[in-house]
User: Fold these one by one.
Assistant:
Number 1:
Amino acid sequence: MINPEKENETLSVFRRSRIMTITKLAHHLDCSTPTVRNRLRNWGALTSYNRNGRFYALANVAKFDENGLWKYKGAFFSQWGTLKHTVRHVVRNSPAGLDASEIGRLVGLPHRSFMAQLRKIQGLRREKYEKRFVYYSDEEHTYRSQRSLRTEESKKMPKRLPSDAEAIFILVDRIKHSDSSVEQCAKRLRKKGKSISIVAIRNILEYHGIEKKTPDISSSGR
């Protein structure tokens, strides 16, 4: 049984600290971990969706943004609860759906750390778009609206460049074979296990202002 006065004092400390761990709360309440967990449920406390759920915050302390997210001292919280529920909410309410990297930027986590979860989230629809998976709402009307807007935005966007890692392979190949064609470059990279499209190669060369030379046929017989 926790003394009511001690509980009120702990709540006061909790509000001032904004976030706390179970260990610290147990110290202030002078009780066991299971008792602290019961109190957290009674208080309607939030659990961080990162840091292995180690941090807790009171709902009336959190300052949520337009996506229902709040980040404080490296601990991330969501008014939607778990990371899975949060991803479902931000995707379903996004104007044009979201790909994994866009979701990662929103929730503040490397997308590779939760990619496996995305395939199991009910309420979402996954579809490949321009060589990457995009997640949309599974509600038909919303899906059509999101898909249409993504297509329109894609048309307005500048040419898509390859990833930084792919760009390095392309530029290194270009240094070694400056007189070869873009098609030949793509063929060499495929032999090395790098499937990079001719369009992507051309885009990165144009981006860096690198002249795309081809062998001079008229001089080849000299």
Note: The radius of gyration is 26 Å.
Number 2:
Amino acid sequence: MAWIKDRHGRFCWVNRTVLMMQTHDRCESAADAAAAILGKTDHDLAPAFLADQYRRDDEQVLAGIRIVNRIEPFRRPDGTLDWHLTNKIPLFDDSGVVVGTAGIAEWLTTPSIGLVPGPEFAVVLTYMRDHYGSSISNQQLAGLSDMSVRTFERNFQRAFHLTPQKYLRNLRLRIASHALVYTNQSLAQVATGHGFADQSHFTHEFRRHFGRTPGEYRDRFARETSTDVSNTSNAAFAQ
């Protein structure tokens, strides 16, 4: 799935895969599907909490910061989770001014694991995806990569523009945001189930990442999402 947005977050172009998903969901023609997406923003198309995350991504990318090989959850309408690998970059005009963003998301499955930069990182990302609720050390991840800890940390930072632990923390926070919106788990259960030491630690990291406490986030998005999610398309989710 690929897309281009302008500085205001309006979709200017999407690829055939996105159009096919939109058509499948709403039984429209390709032209109707394009008309339903182009010129719209994520807040027109996605559940509120996802649109909020996507806009935060856009603001980061518009500031010139690339999002590189990020694994994240993709929730299907039936409530099951898949995973995809996302990259987002700024787009520049001829004078070097950032005029928009471009992104691509690909399903992260065993056959497509080669999408990750290097087989040593493929197994690392798979391990993070499958064990995010447990304590994971750089020593463990380095061992999976057959590298020394120092070499692993240096190479991971170069490939993903984040340290391994910051990458893992961001993954946990995005998955936890789904739990806050879609489940009735207590804040303490969400915290410990997503790899945080306790609720206090979770609250601190969540507020720093999303600008809201977990409780505020749930109050803001859970009810609105439960109302809106049945009216949104998969295409808008996959960022």
Note: Strands lie at 2-6, 11-14, 67-75, 81-92, 98-107.
Number 3:
Amino acid sequence: MEGLTKVFLGVFALLFFSCSNDIQEKKELNNIVKDTIISIDDIKPKENLPTRLTNKNIVEYLSSYGEENKETIIKITTDFGDIKLRLYKNTPLHRVNFIQLIKKGIYENTQFSRVVKGFVIQGGSSNETLAADKKFYLGDYTLPSEMSLSNIHKYGALAMSRSYNDNPEKRSDAFDFYIVLGEKINDPTIYQIQKEGKFKYSKEQLHLYQTIGGTPHLDFEHTVFGEVISGMSVVERINRVEVDGHDWPRDNVVINLEVVK
């Protein structure tokens, strides 16, 4: 009888510990699921919208938003240092769009996803699903062109990328922006660009391209809506990071944007 009792107790203990292990594993699994599920609050913009933004309602929405949000100074925080930007008032839709994206948290923990040596660093994209979900929840739209000869692609210019396919109006992408580096431009090149573009730079603009450089072949191809006012040394350092065959940095260059004033 004593032997049978020991066997029974052994089996009971085995079953008890097995059940305990199952319960613990279920608790751990539940915790993992809780940690990985993205709630609607994670992807909703920080400010409520009346509806998803589209090409049909974007101008009206931004025009209204701009009446209460007149800021022009932005800071980009990176592990390489900070970059401060000034947004132009003569590109009101692009300025306000950038402000609202920042305030809605769209650029939180995104990256400079494209780095072309001596040319540009481009931001606003991310490998993370959360960033893509935030954009989807906000809307699907592009911005009307606000190009002008007043705003050129000088060294330190801030501009918006765009699609070159089926985009005769040269509308800007809603999210992806870039900062210009570029080389100093010689007189023959500047002359040819003006001739082909059928426009004429001012003496000051010619001087800028000749002395600090830029990417003049992008003028009237993309909307320039701001410029770097401090931190170009940071832009230069980011432009030197190692990239893969698609110009994506091998180590993510994480950025966060905030509205300063």
Note: The chain is about 40% helix and 20% strand.
